[in-house]
Design a protein that fits this description.
Layout (H helix, E strand, L loop, with lengths): L22 E7 L2 H17 L4 H11 L5 E7 L2 H9 L11 E5 L11 H6 L1 H13 L4 H6 L4 H4 L2 H21 L6 E4 L3 H8 L5 H16 L5 E6 L3 H8 L6 E8 L2 E7 H10 L4 E3 L15 H8 L12 E2 L4 E2 L4 H9 L4 H10 L4 E5 L4 H6 L8 E4 L7 H14 L6 H4 L18 E4 L8 E2 L9 E4 L1
Parallel strand pairs: 3-4, 3-11, 11-12
Antiparallel strand pairs: 1-2, 5-7, 5-8, 6-7, 9-10, 13-15, 14-15
Helix pairs in contact: 1-3, 5-8, 8-9, 8-10, 9-10, 10-13, 13-14
């Protein structure tokens, strides 16, 4: 279970006497009716017992084995947990491969990472490692709401996104996440390359810092236009403007982004009989206007060492597995982001769960227009929501659809407490601590633990 540092509403009891945390309470059972019945028993227990819910979560998360039917509840007050337990709808997932997607520029938001930094030491340590390698002041740019305008600058936004996403991935990793594939949208691909083992942390920080700085220093005048149509419809409008305009991203069947000279883009927009939207960006990314930075960027790239990825890296430059090199990253700056094609590749290779790691729900929202409705699309955090709670809810969803989670890492401390047992087909059951001479001891089928169940 998860208990937020935010104060509860007036009159509500805190989820834990020690307070200050937020958590998920997970339960598993072989049969759906048994799990529903257990949830009801737990609700009654939590409602009547004054034991800290942190201890209840610790006991559940460290003493019970993972079985087919699953349920997770998240809350901040005792009342919220009781209501969530009584509303449990168990699932029996069919685990399929999982891909992690890293969000690109435009998803950054003021304060991103601050709540996670305060709650999770693993996240804080990983973020501090990036801060130590990046330009001084990055922490303040990310955490201080008054630095919102500075965060929007490309030279700050790109390294901030890399720092946030790298630290968040390390947090997921500490909970047992092992993705089958990784990918990233635009600058997010650098994070994907790092976590896949292709780039060391110092090299990745050097790459993303140089990239953002060179882009920021380009002359103004570029723009990006989102158009609600497919790229084939737009191509005739681009035939006479190859030097100034190009397709920057294909984000869905009817979601294409154009990039280049603003005046030319405005002229094209007036000729289109479809919805358009100007993006809030400083430059024309993934367009011919990026050409002037390719030579100095190549100089930096030649100092980096690229390693074979230990996790398949699916590049949105080619929509195929890749082992990046200098040529890859130079093409990556001017070529379109093939997000739709990448989703098709992932789906074709069996991916059923798509976990977005980034400050918002950008990629999962776009993926809904491309992937089947049976796909599990799970964003980690979202704008205007508590980061810690959103992350724990995402962890619960990943577990509920069949993936392994190390719950001990989420609730490493706490005291084991007596809890209701799983319903049995006959007799009565309860929980107690082992005692000499106890009749008919047997280990419960959900794994070894300090407390044992007895039957009579």
């Amino acid at each position: 279970m998860w208990c937020s540092s935010r104060p509860p509403r007036a009159g509500a009891r805190r989820a834990s006497d020690t307070a200050g945390r937020t958590g998920a309470l997970g339960a598993v059972r072989t049969h759906r009716p048994a799990l529903s019945a257990l949830a009801e028993r737990l609700a009654a227990h939590v409602e009547e017992d004054e034991a800290p819910l942190g201890d209840v979560a610790h006991t559940l998360n460290t003493t019970r084995a993972t079985l087919p039917h699953r349920a997770v509840v998240v809350g901040e007050t005792r009342e919220e947990f009781v209501a969530a337990l009584r509303a449990v709808r168990p699932t029996r997932p069919r685990r399929g491969p999982l891909a992690v997607m890293f969000t690109g520029q435009g998803s950054q938001r003021p304060g991103m990472g601050r709540q996670l930094y305060e709650h999770f030491p693993v996240f804080a340590q990983a973020l501090d490692e990036v801060f130590a390698l990046a330009t001084p002041g990055l922490r303040e740019v990310m955490f201080d709401p008054d630095q919102a305008e500075t965060l929007q600058r490309t030279d700050h936004a790109q390294i901030a996104l890399f720092a946030f996403e790298t630290a968040l991935y390390r947090l997921w990793e500490s909970w047992g996440l092992r993705p089958d594939m990784v990918c990233g949208h635009s600058v997010g691909e650098i994070t994907a390359a790092h976590v896949s083992g292709t780039l060391t942390l110092p090299d990745a920080v050097h790459l993303v810092t140089t990239r953002g700085t060179l882009m920021q220093n380009l002359p103004p005048g570029g723009a990006m236009l989102a158009v609600a149509t497919d790229p084939h419809t737009l191509q005739p409008h681009l035939d006479n403007h190859h030097d100034t305009i190009s397709i920057a991203a294909i984000n869905g069947p009817h979601a294409t982004v154009l990039s280049g000279d603003r005046t030319t883009l405005h002229h094209i927009a007036t000729q289109l009989n479809t919805k358009t939207n100007w993006l809030n960006v400083s430059h024309a990314f993934h367009s011919p206007l990026m050409q002037p930075i390719l030579q100095p960027f190549t100089t930096t790239l030649n100092t980096l060492t690229h390693h074979p990825p230990h996790t398949p890296l699916i590049s949105m430059l080619t929509a195929t597995p890749t082992h990046p090199d200098t040529t890859h990253w130079t093409q990556h700056i001017t070529a379109p982001v093939r997000y739709t094609d990448t989703l098709h590749h992932l789906h074709h290779h069996g991916i059923t769960t798509y976990l977005e790691i980034g400050p918002d729900t950008t990629l999962t929202a776009l993926a809904r227009t491309t992937l089947p409705t049976t796909t599990h699309l799970i964003p980690t955090t979202r704008r205007n929501h508590n980061e810690v709670r959103s992350t724990i809810e995402a962890l619960g969803r990943v577990f509920s659809v069949g993936h392994s989670v190390d719950w001990r890492a989420l609730t490493p401390t706490g005291r084991r407490t007596s809890l209701p047992t799983y319903p049995s087909s006959g007799g009565t059951s309860g929980c107690t601590t082992p005692r000499a001479g106890a009749p008919r001891w047997r280990e419960p089928d959900w794994g070894r633990q300090t407390t044992r169940c007895w039957a009579r």
